[in-house]
């Protein structure tokens, strides 16, 4: 389990990195390495070039905008985000999810951008971004572009980042006052990729009822799945038990991934169970 | 106070804590090259051709071999067994003609660098023609080769009037039970580093474990060398658990390469290889029936089972199936018994022993049966066990059965007493009431138990050589091995107690064929019993020799002397004249007057301990679980292991063995399984797929070590402690989960998966 | 094969080495720096045996390239004990509490817990459990490791063990 041979590049600026990606054939950007390095060691990927982003200072850091929203650099370490009081303020869902991302040792190195671009169907951070309607910034030879996170996944483990592009950061809107949140996942063993994960946000309106609901599932589809129907059913309710039950009923039509280890029915069942629990928690937290 | 029985600190720890250990991968020799194995990617296929030439073209590659290059090396043999006819099913060191499991070695590369060797291995062209894969040992056997099928033998054992018992039974309870495929999976993968010392004409193999002397003899035989010209060395071993230290194809390949290529050859298994190449274990299906009388007493047991050996027979032969047949009955009196063990090959990684082999399986089967008998007879689960226990007054209790070639004679034990102690410590009655309250409130909680008899101290013989040098330091050379469990400390304690020295003055030399001519290694919970007894005898003999010598030096009668902290002195005047053991040793140096009276000079003795029977420790596992009715997750809320080890040399080490053994049992009960798809592709090939318990999965664990039944079979009364923590975890957790589900007997398979629990809950509600 | 000359700062000592760029930090520590205390248990980032401290933060050395570690301060298990006579309080507590058997996972446990105790001198048992939840041990059943850590924390706070 030794990585295959490759050429190594460690640019110090974004422009340099993009130029390298434009010039080199079969190159892979290396972020925190917590997904790419195992894949290299197992030779699941065999790039000719590895472009290391760890020396590009401009790609990491957390900034709070005047409206309270966050700008998070793609190379910001997961553990730095997890422990940042400003993130806890603006996006408590992300902090709750981060505690379940791998382990301390992997979060010390792992980056938010790396997780988003790896886009494991059950990964926590893409699910959070889907739930909070994050906007991602992608840089390429022609400059930067922004797309809503909903357009970021192109398919199974495939982000909308071209071979000569890089994810450089994301914009996370600030949680409105009184928002209730919950992030739950089920894995057979602590710290593993979830079989199913669920993220829920409930924004109260002036009348105390749900003005906006966000319900996202991981591990069910090839990428995070927003349950628009459930969200619509929750809007305008006080998240009473029967409102939750109606929202849960929408999971019956899910057609989850199936693999040799986890049958589809089990994922669908878990989606309903976890969603019910998450809605209960978020309801308690909504003020 | 004697150091025997004290929880003293380990002698092994300092280098391990400082990162100064000598694990297999830590061993390097000048000019060494690296080996990489090319493995089969199909479960069953005709091996059409292997072309290594593209690999040879890569710079840094020194050699590449396929089966034709190693044709003169016979397949890897197995250790002595009473079962005949197994030889044709042994594994060649490189696949010949057919591949029979994913991971089977097909070719090897030797290169200057490990990564380059891996690059080259990727270039080897292996042409395979896929054949149907056989993945179910309970299915009809198919062809192993042109003349043999995939059932090498049927293990049969029986006694008593079985048919009559079933005819006359009040009830017959029949179950179909299965144990999943899992294994030891030590944190250190295997490694083998071979070096040919041409100057001395000695072949050395480093990174070995467990069975150095047998492996040495077989390597010598297979490579056509004298055993005295082959030596095996053991450094640190990162966990053994049964799988590490067996003789595998890679061990022979590095030795052969070191001889042919005349350079040291290093092979370090990677984790993905480990999960498909190192011995699997456990997978067995039992169709078991019990004839029971109206009081819930067992009249007979009929045990038909299918043992999934995987693709080849390895060094254990049919031992696990043999033990599954011979040791199934545990603590119970069973008037008639018949075992029919279908020992079958499939297209999976070969299997052999893993901590509590045959007993983890057997306890699950037997204790599920006891629960079912209780349910059928309307008896309490505890009571049905009490009624069937072999009573303490019946000890020693001879069963008309054999296992591992020795008659099963339970040497000592008070099973009912331990059960009472364990129930009291666990607070069973209070928990029964608490569980009832919680169930009434809608929770799914349950209690479970498993009672078992372990085995340990497999003979026939073990010897040690114990020497005091001129400084008073003690060296104990043993043919035992250490796989990280604290062998050095335990043997040092026994030696120190018998001789009368500080245990920290005892250096234990183990796992080396160049220091002692014979040895049996470390397995089957045998070291403390066998090597420990030999050490005890040696220590006493050495003390006698020291006193005899000191008597001459001090002009004092021998029987007036004692040895305390390395000093021989008078019992009645401890402050009076004395000699140190170092001085005694000097008085026995070659050429001295006193030494000439003896066959060999020096303060040294060799002692052998022989035993024809095993010692049988016994235990009780108690579990409380709660089921998550939404996810099906089983949460173990509390667990107790009660274990009688006869006498504990070091209670801290015994508890450590039990706690670690429990964690492994928990893995087999709830998490770990080697799974395959329908074509025999392994699905559990990383640590993300093969789920070993982390600390997050560990429940509160209480350990009750008792010493109620010392073994009469050895001078120190000990029984092995290594496997009791593992033995009944599957049994007790299955019992508790089933209880939480309402006691319907739905739990018939391990590991218990959350989705199965959901299914059971749904069935129960329907 | 692409190689680079790099300098690694390990346990306060400089190592000028030339490594293939594909070589992991763990392999470089073991093969090029001669520090074999960092063990490889899985090489895919799950078992935690290879955990080292990178600028004081725990990281899997199998998931970093050696060339990435240039200019970073690396601490391995060999760097924990103050000298040949004394153990680090955590190492001593591991011995006192039988928190190791085969010792293979121990270096990764120790480095992980050194980081925890630097960050949180008075952890609860629950916090210790979370900290080592990414470290597999196949021998101990883990509980003695928690006890050892709590004992070491007390010693490091200056309280009698």
UniProtKB/TrEMBL annotation, chain A:
Transmembrane segments: none
Coiled-coil segments: none
Domain of life: Bacteria
Record keywords, A-Z: FAD, Flavoprotein, Oxidoreductase
Pfam families, per the entry: CO_deh_flav_C, FAD_binding_5
Annotated ranges, domain FAD-binding PCMH-type: 1-177
Designated name of the protein: Xanthine dehydrogenase family protein subunit M
From TrEMBL, chain B:
Transferase listed as a keyword: no
Keyword NAD appears in the UniProt entry: no
Coiled-coil positions: none
One Pfam short name: MoCoBD_1
Domain Aldehyde oxidase/xanthine dehydrogenase a/b hammerhead, first and last residues per copy: 18-132
InterPro entries for the chain: Ald_Oxase/Xan_DH_a/b, Ald_Oxase/xanthine_DH-like, AldOxase/xan_DH_MoCoBD1, AldOxase/xan_DH_MoCoBD2
The entry's keywords: Molybdenum
Domain of life of the source: Bacteria
Cross-referenced PANTHER family: ALDEHYDE OXIDASE 1-RELATED (PTHR11908:SF132), XANTHINE DEHYDROGENASE (PTHR11908)
Protein name: Xanthine dehydrogenase family protein molybdopterin-binding subunit
Species the sequence originates in: Falsiroseomonas oleicola
Lineage: Bacteria, Pseudomonadati, Pseudomonadota, Alphaproteobacteria, Acetobacterales
From TrEMBL, chain C:
Transmembrane intervals: none
Alphabetically ordered keywords of this record: 2Fe-2S, Iron, Iron-sulfur, Metal-binding, Oxidoreductase
Domain 2Fe-2S ferredoxin-type: 4-80
Pfam families found in the cross-reference section: Fer2, Fer2_2
PROSITE patterns, A to Z: 2FE2S_FER_1 (PS00197), 2FE2S_FER_2 (PS51085)
Full protein name: (2Fe-2S)-binding protein
Native species: Falsiroseomonas oleicola
